Amino acid sequence: METINEYKYKKAKEQVECIKGFYTHLMVYVIVISVLAYFNYATTSFPWVLFPALGWGLGLTAHGLRAFGYMPFLGKDWEERKIKEFMERDE
């Protein structure tokens, strides 16, 4: 059985990995959308680049909210309550 410190370390490490993943996602987003914007500018006057930028941007926003701990619906409080509920039920 793991101790409280091991559990806290594991959760902190997961949080750091999630934040690192967000920054990687952000860099890829900026690079790809920039390339698409260039192609859009070079080929047509219709701003089609807005569609992937907005769609992917919504996913990136959700990733950022999760990485930095802001979940308005199923946040940390809900998660902790459910964990305690299941632990008590299984005793």
Detailed description of the structure:
With 91 residues, this protein is mostly helical. The chain has one domain (4-90). The protein contains three helices and no strands. It has helices at 4-43, 50-67, 76-90. The relative contact order is 0.09. The model has no long low-confidence stretch (mean pLDDT 89). Keywords: Kinase, Membrane, Transferase, Transmembrane, Transmembrane helix. The chain crosses the membrane at residues 21-41, 53-74. Residues 10-88 form the 2TM domain.
Silhouette: elongated
User: What is the beta-strand fraction?
Assistant: under 5%
Number of domains: 1
> Terminal Cα separation, in Å?
15 Å
Q: What would you call the quaternary organization?
A: single chain
Would you count the extended β strands for me? 0
Total helical elements: 3
Q: Give the helix/strand class.
A: mainly alpha
Give the rounded overall mean pLDDT: 89
Report on the biggest sheet: none
State the share of residues found in helices, binned by percent.
over 70%
Based on CA atoms alone, the radius of gyration comes out at 20 Å
List low-confidence stretches: none
Q: List the helices and strands in order.
A: HHH
Domain 2TM: 10-88
Protein name: Histidine kinase
Transmembrane segments: 21-41, 53-74
Pfam families: 2TM
